[in-house]
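Consider the tokenized backbone below.
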């Protein structure tokens, strides 16, 4: 489950805890730090070490957990940072929380290749979570870096966003439509299957409010795209990275 107390804002963790508590042993919960919300719901930068610790502590309380399985340090939330905070200080407090047993794994989100490389010199990185999808491949160099270092890659906006048309735009692409028809699946399922074929540690987080779409998303794991279909999908129009 990919969550954040700032989603909603300030309701998602409580809803998850209400439904899932006590969590099964094999459930992994990932959250993120680096931003919060103002009284109007707008995003605010919150990435000083003491703010990062406070966010993790809040996650622990609202999720009713003793430890968060994975915490992503997210960059760029709320616009440019109003003050310079060294990466070592930010990852340092997450490492302290890991040493205290409150965090298991540390990840990065919305980052450049240079940040990933610098972070790896400070602490092991379990995952990178960036915008990426079949119609937005600007993150290919970072995906290559994750393959090289055996890091899980988690694409957000895997089906695009409201800024790029989302699934409707994918369904209108002739390459995606042709492969979807051959495999007797939806365009969205085709796009998600394409992602799974790109990295053996690709983890998908397609959000949905529909049980039907959730079931379709879960069925993607059974879709096998052959070399011909993968080659066809390489012709998909590149739309660029959606705004966050």
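A designed sequence for it:
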């Amino acid at each position: 489950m990919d969550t954040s107390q700032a989603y909603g804002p300030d309701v998602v963790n409580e809803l998850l805890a209400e439904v899932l508590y006590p969590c099964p042993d094999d459930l992994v919960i990932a959250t993120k730090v680096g931003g919060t919300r103002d009284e109007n719901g707008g995003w605010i930068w919150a990435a000083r070490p003491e703010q990062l610790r406070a966010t993790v502590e809040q996650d622990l309380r609202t999720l009713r957990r003793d430890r968060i399985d994975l915490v992503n340090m997210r960059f760029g939330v709320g616009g440019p940072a109003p003050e310079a905070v060294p990466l070592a200080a930010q990852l340092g407090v997450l490492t302290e929380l890991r040493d205290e047993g409150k965090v298991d794994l540390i990840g990065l989100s919305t980052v450049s290749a240079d940040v990933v490389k610098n972070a790896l010199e400070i602490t092991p990185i379990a995952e990178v979570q960036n915008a990426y999808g079949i119609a937005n491949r600007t993150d290919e160099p970072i995906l290559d870096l994750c393959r090289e270092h055996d890091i899980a890659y988690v694409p957000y906006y895997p089906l695009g966003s409201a800024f790029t048309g989302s699934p409707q735009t994918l369904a209108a692409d002739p390459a995606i439509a042709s492969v979807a028809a051959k495999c007797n699946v939806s365009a969205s399922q085709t796009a998600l299957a394409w992602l799974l074929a790109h990295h053996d540690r690709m983890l998908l987080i397609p959000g949905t409010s529909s049980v039907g779409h959730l079931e379709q998303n879960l069925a993607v794991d059974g879709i096998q795209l052959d070399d011909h279909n993968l080659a066809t999908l390489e012709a998909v129009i590149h739309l660029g990275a959606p705004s966050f």
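Residues 110 and 186 are 28 Å apart (CA to CA).
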